[in-house]
């Protein structure tokens, strides 16, 4: 227990020295593109349908300097939000950030995830990004969070993956060796790390990897320190990740970066290999994909506490009676060229654009129409509706059949 307390103190010391993330403070709401922080869109991803309640409780577990908290408040205007973090220095920045942006429905607590049970009540939505892998006991951490998740609630988690961080781990160890007994001096560690990169040959593997993937963000000492001189890090692979998930006692609802886990992008040229891939059980399929594309640096995924009934939109009758509306996380609308909830450019077809226009008009009329009502006046097929829903460009509320 003493060692774990020492590690927690060391982690707190890092973030007190280098509050993270170092996003600038602004006097306006952040751009609302990350759908993972939008309760209705995240819930739709997990269940297929828009949630009935919007006045939910949200916990940002390990909020750091409040960038994610700021999004959670602004993307969920009816929700109440709580942010907790181990670093008092990071929390000071978080409070200022939310004060300046007008994020008023939030409260902060200087609290470890291990002590989250001190908070009153349960939460419908828990966000825990970039935290569990820095705990000395991640299983205890995720179990404590699971106890605070309400029935029917969802949790979004982000943890490191070992395959894409192999070079990072080598540099971490090199810096630690050169620091010796001064390892707790994080500013000195950053200087040593930068000196190493400046001294290594240009064709060195660690240098090339840093320049290709991380150099832009690592111009900031806060990012460099978080990556290379962190006192505690546990990296996962699919096998150890699902050990963590199973320990939570929650249901795995899927990876939120779905494109990476599409085996077709890797083996699609071979029907025979694709047949073998689709015949694997889920975990073996995931493991094969990460082995074939070892650039993965993190896992992001949703867990849930039942009951979380899923809806199947492949049934035409059910889909025709649903009420559609635009996702709150698309940017650039109205236009045939919009940004989705991952801030990726989407070039809408004429049919898709017309359907989204009709959805918007329907909701604004205060008399929402069903999918069937809208399609009666358009030359648009149900497959386009399903495509828009699967890409989280629209949300669907089941109707009566």
Summarize the structure.
The chain is of the alpha/beta class and 401 residues long.
Structure description:
- The chain has 401 residues and is of the alpha/beta class.
- It folds into three domains: 17-162 and 235-304, Rossmann fold, CATH 3.40.50; 165-228; 316-397.
- Helices cover 43% and strands 15% of the residues.
- The chain has helices spanning 2-17, 39-47, 67-75, 88-101, 138-147, 166-179, 186-199, 205-213, 221-228, 238-248, 264-267, 271-278, 282-292, 316-320, 350-364, 371-375, 382-390, and strands at 57-61, 80-85, 106-110, 123-129, 149-160, 251-255, 298-304, 323-326, 337-339, 345-347, 394-397.
- The strands form three sheets. Strands 3-2-1-4-5-7-6 form a seven-stranded mixed beta sheet. A two-stranded antiparallel sheet has the order 8-11.
- Helix 5 (138-147) packs parallel to helix 10 (238-248), helix 6 crosses helix 7 (186-199) and helix 7 crosses helix 9 (221-228).
- The protein is globular, with a radius of gyration of 23 Å.
- 36% of the residues are buried.
Can you lay out the helices and strands and say which pair or pack?
Layout: H1 2-17, H2 39-47, E1 57-61, H3 67-75, E2 80-85, H4 88-101, E3 106-110, E4 123-129, H5 138-147, E5 149-160, H6 166-179, H7 186-199, H8 205-213, H9 221-228, H10 238-248, E6 251-255, H11 264-267, H12 271-278, H13 282-292, E7 298-304, H14 316-320, E8 323-326, E9 337-339, E10 345-347, H15 350-364, H16 371-375, H17 382-390, E11 394-397
Parallel strand pairs: 1-2, 1-4, 2-3, 4-5
Antiparallel strand pairs: 5-7, 6-7, 8-11, 9-10
